[in-house]
């Protein structure tokens, strides 16, 4: 079951690989709740039921509808063979379906990666997380979705979307405004940050520096180009337990931070080479001291921090003095920690360097 407090809901999934929640349903239900406005910023959209939900919104009278996608998923790296549709045919077909409904669909043409994954609904709610709106994203890859029904946070994401929609993204982000506001929802602190202008990497490093007992994570891409591995090694060196799950393919790349983290005593787990049952560990999750949660689209890489378009949401605050907030963040943290533990138990084996 999703974890919920006030206007914040965390979905961990998908159910097809043992996760507790249905990520497809969470995404479609969010879209189906729109009455006036939908702003969609996502790297890839190839899942027909989600595209159909966006079209349904238009047909029932949602007036302001804009979609921004990563251009690389709308074109082919090479021309398909005669009679073949190409790798990204479904992406193009769904984009065309939305265009035919007079939905404004744009491709960002960022030479780096447009990596956002969020929807703003009616200016007062936002959905974000690690999940692309793809069939594999909602049914085959380990992912999460966070829904925040709170106007201040939604307005920060709406402002980010409007900047993206006019071509202000990635390295061209100098025109961005001040750091986002940090509202409390039922006493629970919510802190959104956008890359590259707000340096999410530094926020994650600061949180690890404050950790007292443990740091747990599940991450798709963890590169040596990020400063996060250096801070993680320093955190482990002062006796804090550090444990994580990495995607198997990404973790074995030459640029990955895997071997350095292992040598420093970080407990690492990778999906079993055979029979793990999962396609990718696509989460971007971190839990500090079992209760402060970092979510969003942000992989732990230098480009994610410097040139891609990304976001994170920190749920909770280290040593929060608000009793309601502290109790809520412990519930969110426990849920994420439990899912990381389940992934390790059900799907993984310890990392052993070659």
State the gist of this model.
Helix 1 packs parallel to helix 2, helix 2 runs parallel beside helix 3 and helix 6 (200-210) runs parallel beside helix 7 (228-237). This protein is 32% helix and 25% strand.
Record keyword descriptors for this entry:
single chain, 354 residues, alpha+beta, nine-stranded mixed sheet, eight-stranded mixed sheet, 25% strand
In words, what does this structure look like?
This protein has 354 residues and is α+β, with helices and mostly antiparallel strands. The chain has helices at 23-32, 48-59, 89-100, 135-139, 151-165, 200-210, 228-237, 248-251, 258-263, 302-306, 323-347, and strands at 3-5, 8-13, 37-42, 64-69, 104-107, 117-121, 125-129, 143-148, 184-185, 188-195, 214-219, 241-246, 267-271, 284-288, 292-296, 310-315, 348-350. The strands form 2 sheets. It has a 9-stranded mixed beta sheet, with helices on both faces. The longest helix is centred in the C-terminal third of the chain and has 25 residues, at 323-347. The model has no long low-confidence stretch (mean pLDDT 93).
Spatially, the strands of the biggest sheet line up as 9-10-16-15-14-11-12-13-17
User: Which secondary-structure class do the elements indicate?
Assistant: alpha+beta
Number of helices: 11
Note the overall shape. Answer: globular
Order of H and E elements: EEHEHEHEEEHEHEEHEHEHHEEEHEHE
Average of pLDDT = 93
Low-pLDDT runs? none
Q: Span between N and C termini?
A: 39 Å
Helix content: 25-40%
- Extended strand count: 17
Main sheet specs: 9 strands, mixed
Strand-residue fraction?
Answer: 15-25%
Compute the CA-based radius of gyration: 19 Å
């Amino acid at each position: 079951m999703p974890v919920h407090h006030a206007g914040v809901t965390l979905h961990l999934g998908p159910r097809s690989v043992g996760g507790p929640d249905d990520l497809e349903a969470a995404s479609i239900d969010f879209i189906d709740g729109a009455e006036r406005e939908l702003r969609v910023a996502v790297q890839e959209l190839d899942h027909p039921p989600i595209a159909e939900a966006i079209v349904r919104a238009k047909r029932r009278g949602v007036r302001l509808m804009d979609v921004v996608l990563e251009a690389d998923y709308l074109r082919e790296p090479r021309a398909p063979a005669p009679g073949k549709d190409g790798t990204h045919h479904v992406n193009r077909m769904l984009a065309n379906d939305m265009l035919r409904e007079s939905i404004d669909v744009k491709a960002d043409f960022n030479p780096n990666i447009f990596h956002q994954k969020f929807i703003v609904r009616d200016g007062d709610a936002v959905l974000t997380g690690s999940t692309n709106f793809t069939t594999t994203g909602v049914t085959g890859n380990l992912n999460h979705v966070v829904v925040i029904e709170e106007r201040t946070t939604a307005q920060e994401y709406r402002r980010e979307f409007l900047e993206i929609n006019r071509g202000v993204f990635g390295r061209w982000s100098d025109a961005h405004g001040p750091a986002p506001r940090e509202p409390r929802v039922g006493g629970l602190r919510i802190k959104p940050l956008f890359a590259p202008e707000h340096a999410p990497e530094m926020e994650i490093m600061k949180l690890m520096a404050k950790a007292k007992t443990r740091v747990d994570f599940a991450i798709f891409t963890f590169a040596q180009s990020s400063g996060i591995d250096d801070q993680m090694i320093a955190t482990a060196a002062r006796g804090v337990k550090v444990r994580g799950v990495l995607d198997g393919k990404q973790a074995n790349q030459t640029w990955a931070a895997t071997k350095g983290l292992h040598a420093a005593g970080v407990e690492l787990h990778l999906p079993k080479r055979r029979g793990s049952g999962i396609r990718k560990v696509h989460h971007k999750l971190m839990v500090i001291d079992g209760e402060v949660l970092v979510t969003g689209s942000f992989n732990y890489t230098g480009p994610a921090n410097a040139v891609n378009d990304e976001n994170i949401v920190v749920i909770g605050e280290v040593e929060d003095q608000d009793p309601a907030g502290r109790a809520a963040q412990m519930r969110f943290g426990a849920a994420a920690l439990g899912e990381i533990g389940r992934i390790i138990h059900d799907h993984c084996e310890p990392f052993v360097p070659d």
